[in-house]
Amino acid sequence: MTDRQYILFYKPYGVLCQFTDDSSNPRPTLKEYIDIPEVYSVGRLDFDSEGLLLLTNDGQLKHRLIDPQFEHTRTYWVQVERIPTEESLQQLRDGVTIQGYHTKPAIAKLLETEPDLPPREPPIRFRANIPTAWIELTLTEGKNRQVRKMTASVGFPTLRLVRVAIAHLSLEGLSVGEWRSLTDVELQKLRLKVLPRRLR
Prior knowledge:
The protein is built from four helices and eleven strands; from the N terminus they run E-E-E-H-E-H-E-E-E-E-H-E-E-E-H. It is of the alpha+beta class. The mean pLDDT is 91.
């Protein structure tokens, strides 16, 4: 039996959340950064999003983390066009309707200062006459391009999107493109959170 692997990776912008790309114009994939066989991402980050990715070959843990009924948290720092109002933040907290689906309640707050993140390559489009702001958004679900659709629905399009945490796991200590294995303490805490007692 293959040893179980649990990996945290700081996915760069412009990298696919998979190990192969069979398209006619192949794009960078996880294979260029991670050389461990048969691990798969738990959930996804879009090609144009950055940040924390958890990879594993532990099928039980992966299922519990991606199944929305178990509601584990994912936290994002989101740079948006213009300055969100308290009313728009409350709409995000209450949930918004996207293509007939009403999102679950979220935690949304305006960051007072720009977060300390490495520059994105390429940088976002800058327009001098349109201010930007950063929101911290914590969700318990992960629909396709959900964060971008949520901010757009309340009038503040997403410019840059960085996932900074999955449950208690964070980007801390990782540089863009780096990965590391979970510590024993991190893994035990994760298993206690997401697995029933009989599977821990």
